Task: structure prediction
Amino acid sequence: MVKATTTSFALLFGLFFAACGGGGGGSDGGDVGDAGASDGATRDGSVLTDGAVDSGDAGSVDAFVPPSECTHGIDNDGDDYTDWQNDPGCFGPGDSTEAALPRDQEHGFTTFDVGSDSVVVYVSQDGDDSADGLSPETAVQTLTHAASLLRDGHGDFMLLKRGHTWRGESLGRFLSGQDAAHPMVISSYGDSMELPPVELDGNFIDHNGQACSFVSVVGLHFVVYPKDPADAAFDGATDGGFRYVGGGSADSSAWFCLNGSAAALSDWQGASGEADATALPSPPSFTAPDRSVETYAGSIGVGSTLPDFLAAARLQSRLNWRDDLTALAPNDYIRAGFE
Result:
């Protein structure tokens, strides 16, 4: 289970989910890249003037960088997407090639090549959901409509316009990508260097027990606005982020994650030393994997939120005692959902 516990978090490098929880009843199943920028590239790949690249230190410039494949207006890799504004193979204007390379060759950034059969859907606050979404000029407006244009089980892309903001939208159970090499990608595009904020009042993706695999999210800035004291909707309690609880496909690369990449069982056995480890032939089916403290509160009639449960628990005394308000009771209730 992945949730935001702070006000906001920016995905500069990439969040990759293989098997959406690994079928282990709530394990993370995700990897967040943590490599930093180096060799003249900034954490956002920004360029100052005449190709001078900001080192990230105030007032300093590392080196003069001549126009690269990601800045000179030519589609070098022949995928019909040009330069850092539109080609997911570029991490920013400081990238030297439009081709997606391993992170250690991309200054720690996660990049992608658009497949010949990939559908790319553009989303902009200036867009129109009656448009086809297949170009920046015909972008759609809402994230939910953009998701409806993607294909489950394919290496498609949803690109949000940088500098624009989405508030209160979520993708629910969402979709799966094709495989580890061709994930479903949610990322960004456009001239701005500002990562597009996605302001949440719940989970952006919550596949809620559904089998779901191979989703990569990169280049977005997530804000859980009910936890931001400066926001008018602040309540300090509402959570948001990503919730991947349940199963994924049990093929050769869906159950394990090593160093940020999906791995087969044999790879896991070699890396862990657990030569006798086995994988289930199919994802387990749980009784009620979506149980939570909130649903438990409702089941015992003390409200429907965590604060409701805590308020009732604080009334406990030797003269007013309820076993169903002890910590053990909701733990047992949630655990029973995974039987």
